[in-house]
Amino acid sequence: MAEATPPQRNRYVDFLRALSILAVVSGHWLVAAPYMEDGAVQGEHLLGILPWTQWLTWGFQVMPIFFLVGGYSSGISWSANRRDGGGYSDWLGGRLERLINPVLPLFLLWTLFALFGTAVGVERRILGLAAQLALIPVWFLAVYLIVTALVPLTHAAWRKLGFASFWLLGAGVVLVDVATLRFGVRYVNFGNFAFVWLAITQLGYAWADGRLAPAKAMLWAVGGLAALVALIWFGPYPVAMIGVPGNEITNSMPPTLALLALGIAQTGIALALEPVGRKMLDRGGAWTSVILVNGMIMTIYLWHLTAFVFVLVAAWLLGGIGLNVEPGSGAWWLARPGWFALYIAALLPLIAIFARYEQAGRRGDTPELPRWRVIVGLLLICAGLAASAAISIASPNGITGVRLWVVALPYIGATVAGFGPIIDLLRRLRPARPSR
User: Fold this and answer.
1) DSSP one-letter code for 54
2) pLDDT at 431
3) Tell me, what's the pLDDT at 433?
4) Rounded CA gap, 254 and 260, in Å?
5) What span, in angstroms and rounded, lies between the C-alpha atoms of 133 and 62?
6) What are the residues whose beta carbons fall under 8 Å from the beta carbon of 316, sequence distance 6 or more?
7) Residue 264 region by backbone torsions, left for phi larger than 0, else alpha for psi between -120 and 50, else beta
C-alpha cells in the first residue's frame, strides 16, 4: 500500500491524523492513576495530583489537529464530489458509515458486559463507571459527525468569505465565553462545540487551498501561543486543556476560547513543520508506519480505554498487583512503561478482532437515500454516542442493568441511514431474484 501511494497525495495529512490519535491514547493512559485502598480500586487523576502536569496537556490535547485534518480532507472530498456530480446523501452516508461501523461492535460488547455483570451481581456503580470510562472516546465522534454534516455550508462560507469565515466563528466563541463566564448564562457554552471546532475546520480548508504556507503558519503559531498565554495569565481560564477534578472551568467540555487559541497555535506549528514532515515521509519506513496506523486508527482510538479497563480488572483480580504504588510518586513514574506495555498487549488482540469493521465501506450498488433519512440517522447516532459518554449505557436501575434506549439509538440510526448489522441481515434474508 505504501509503494502504491499516488505521488500527489499529501502524506503529511495522514501523519498528523495518526500522530493526533496516538497522542490522545497515550494521554488517556497517562492521566488515569488508579490505586488500591481498603481492598477496592480507587480512581485518581494525575493532573489533580501533580498540578505541573497540567502544562503537558498543551501537547497531548490534540483534538484541534484532528479537526484541522478533517477540514483538509473533507474540503477536498466534498469538492471532488461536486465535480463528479455526486449527491449530499451519498457523500455524507459514506463518511458516516466508515466512522460508525467500528463503533457498533464496541457498543455491543459493553452491553453484553453490563448485562452479564448485572446478572451475576456485580455492583452496578462499578459497571456504570467501567462502561462510561470505556466509551469516553465516542463523544468526539458525535461532534465530528455534526461538523462533517455541515461541510457543504462551511466550505461554501470559506469559498465566499475566506479567512473572514474563521474570524466570524471565533467571534462566536468570544460571545459564548463572555455570556458564560461574565454573565453566568447557563447552557449557552455548549454552542462552543460548534463554534470552536467549525473554526478549526475552516483552517483545514485554508490549508487545502494553500493559504497557510509555512512562513505564514508560523505567524499563526506565535499569535495563538501569545493569545493562549494571555488568556491564562490575565483571564479566568485554567492551564489544563482538559477537565481536571475540582476545577470550576474546563477548557474542553465544552471548548473555550483558550482551546481555540491552542488550536491556532498547534495549526501554525504543524503547518510550519510541513516541509520537514513531508521530506521525512518520502522515506519508505516512515510512510509505511503511517499507513499501518491509519489502517486501524479508529479501532485503536475506540478500544484503547477498553484495553485499559481489562488490564485494571486483571490487576484487581490478582489482588491489586501493581496498584499499591502512590500515584505521582517516583516509583509510579518508573512503572509507567510496564503499564503501557500491558495496555498495548491488551489492545493488540482487540485490534486483530475488530479492525475489520474499519475497512467496511458502502456498497457500490446501493441507491442514494433521501437526504432526510441520512440526516435523521446521523442525529439518532449522535444522540446515542453523546448519551453513552455522558451517562453510560449501564443503568443503576431496572432488571437488565442497561439503558437499552441509549444502546439502541446508534443501531436505529445506522439502519435509518441505510447501513449497519440490521441492514446486512435484511439483505441476507432477502430472496435472490431468479435469473432469466
Assistant:
1) G
2) 61
3) 56
4) 11
5) 19
6) 36, 41, 323
7) alpha
425, pLDDT greater than 80? no
Cα distances (angstroms) measured from residue 48 to each of 63, 168, 182:
21, 35, 26
Judge whether residue 228 has pLDDT over 90.
yes
The helix/strand/coil state of 402 is: strand
**Would you call 255 helix, strand, or coil by DSSP?**
strand
- Region 254-263: mean pLDDT is 96
The mean per-residue pLDDT over the stretch 23-50 comes to 83
Predicted confidence at residue 429, as pLDDT, reads 67
- Looking at residue 9, the DSSP 8-state letter turns out to be S
- Exposure string for 223-232, b = 16+ CB within 10 A, e = fewer: ebbebbeebb
- Cell numbers standing for residue 106: 464496541
Instruction: Report yes or no: 393 and 364 within 8 Å, Cβ to Cβ.
Output: no
Give the CA distances from residue 170 to residues 72, 166, 198, in Å, rounded to whole numbers and listed in that order. 19, 6, 9
Q: How crowded is residue 80: how many other Cβ atoms within 10 Å of its Cβ?
A: 11
Q: State the Cα–Cα distance between residues 408 and 108, nearest whole angstrom.
A: 10
Interacting residues of 122 by C-beta distance below 8 A, sequence separation 6+: none
Query: What does the pLDDT average to over 207-235?
Result: 94
Cell of 389: 459518554
User: What is the average per-residue pLDDT within 103-128?
Assistant: 88
Residue 196 in grid coordinates? 470552536
Dist CA 257 CA 181 (whole Å): 11
CA pair distance 332, 292, nearest whole angstrom: 31
Q: How far is the CA of 40 from the CAs of 34, 45, 66, 121, 124, in angstroms? A: 10, 16, 37, 16, 15
Instruction: Report helix, strand or coil for 135.
Output: coil
Residue 434 above 60 pLDDT? Answer: no
Q: Answer whether residue 1 shows pLDDT above 90.
A: no
Largest Cα span, the chain: 78
Measure the CA–CA gap between 334 and 317, rounded to whole angstroms: 23
What are the extents of the domains in the chain?
A: 11-358
Write out the H or E segment, with its range, that includes residue 42: strand 40-42
Look up the pTM and report it: 0.91
- Check residues 428 and 282 and name the one with the higher pLDDT: 282
122 — phi, psi (to 5°)? -65, 140
Q: 357 or 270: whose pLDDT is higher? A: 270
Alpha-carbon distance 186 to 165, whole Å? 26
